Amino acid sequence: MPEPIDVALIGGGIMSATLGTLLKQLEPEWDIRIYERLSDLAMESSNPWNNAGTGHAALCELNYTPEKPDGSIDITSAVKVNEQFQVSRQFWAHLVDQGHLPEPSSFINATPHMSFVWGESNVEYLRKRYEALKDHPLFAGMEYSEDAAQIRRWAPLLIPGRAKAQPIAATYIASGTDVDFGALTKYLARYLVANGAKVELEHRVTNISRTKRGTWRIAMRQEIGLTPIEVEARFVFVGAGGHALKLLQKSGIPEIKGFGGFPVSGEFLRTDDPEVVAKHRAKVYGKAAVGSPPMSVPHLDTRVVDGKASLMFGPYAGFSPKFLKHGSWWDLPGSVRPHNLVPMVRAGLSNLSLVRYLVGQLVARRSTKFAALEEFFPGADPKDWYKITAGQRVQVIKKDPEKGGVLQFGTEVVASADGTIAGLLGASPGASTAVPIMLGLVEKCFPDRIEAWAPKIAAMVPSFGTQLAAKPAVAKRTLAATAKKLKLTA
């Protein structure tokens, strides 16, 4: 075997591209390689049509601000997610400033974020949410209205055709964004290649095993010619989306024991009709139905891909045992192990409402699904919309000392005790928080280097190691500076 490479990144999505870029900034001489089994990068969840591209900052996503039993609003998760997204924005702004990323509008665009609800109880909830957030430094500029005329000025499609007597309310914040994570992934990979890294497409990883000297042997197969290849690496990151679970299982690290995955597919309705698209320039999130999972929150989104705007509405959930959109029908059964069987069964029994929701979505007629869009956009015309299949999400199932197993909506980094291999499991908010997730991984896997790296990280992410929420003046300056570099201000 030749000399081990420094870093092997498995999977060509936003997570691998982000980690590779961070490490290349910190250690320019390291030999970094990305291995992707498909013919291009960002073909799975990072693809712009496989996610909503919201730039999750909890500005409009109501599932991050649950109502407590006493009626008050818990903003803890909203503040945490917003803090994380600000870290990502600072890193992207640094790369733009250094000339490592191109014109910001090629991957991020200012797009107002709105929450929109109807019904007296939902209006009351949104009013309380607004009161809880409006004075927070990370949510500065949020507006609230129950006036149909004002809401129509914010989002013209939401009002015409709606019953005048229906109680409605909306919040609006202009600092929201739409992010094309597919384009961003490719730009980060372009930077890596220009600085000595390698991207190997159509390389399917079949096994990961530890060598006697403590490195990792990665067995691969070239998809063209089916040529077997082996590479030895000092550090391995598994950012392969749904396949991360299976590859970490193959590595044999004890830290992956007890973890399982539950795949959920999704569909959206999409329109490219210029007349319709021109009337809606926002991302509008509603409230999930009572008993529905967080993934079911309906939203009508502006998407900007390759400079062209479209609208998406959804999601409509479905089920497939595949762990990736381009995966295998045997992914789910193939992931079951003796150590995760009990957690998976217990998590399933504890989430029967999710099962009922998925079944209901699978058997729903097209007219029923379109009616959900009409609740948002009463004047929607079926001929303007067509169905697209979104990316596959694999929710984390993990051991729980009390329940035996729990289904977790979020992401989780799993790393070996010695920090030589790590992987990412889970889904939303995912891509939007790629930078803080990868910074956390760097701290976890390279504890002996983090002190020396800290000044470089602080130069890339000025808020590193601090909480903007606790420093209103610093938060205001940081958000303004970042927005200016990313050209998100007028």
Automatic annotation (TrEMBL):
It is an enzyme of class 1 (oxidoreductase). Pfam families: Mqo (PF06039). Its cofactor is FAD. It comes from the Bacteria. It catalyses: (S)-malate + a quinone = a quinol + oxaloacetate. Keywords: FAD, Flavoprotein, Oxidoreductase, Tricarboxylic acid cycle. Pathway: Carbohydrate metabolism; tricarboxylic acid cycle; oxaloacetate from (S)-malate (quinone route): step 1/1. Transmembrane segments: none annotated. GO terms for molecular function: (S)-2-hydroxyglutarate dehydrogenase activity; L-malate dehydrogenase (quinone) activity. GO terms for biological process: tricarboxylic acid cycle. Its EC number is 1.1.5.4. NCBIfam families: mal_quin_oxido, PRK05257.1-1, PRK05257.1-4, PRK05257.2-1, PRK05257.2-5, PRK05257.3-1, PRK05257.3-2, PRK05257.3-3. Belongs to the MQO family. This is Probable malate:quinone oxidoreductase. It comes from Diaminobutyricimonas aerilata.
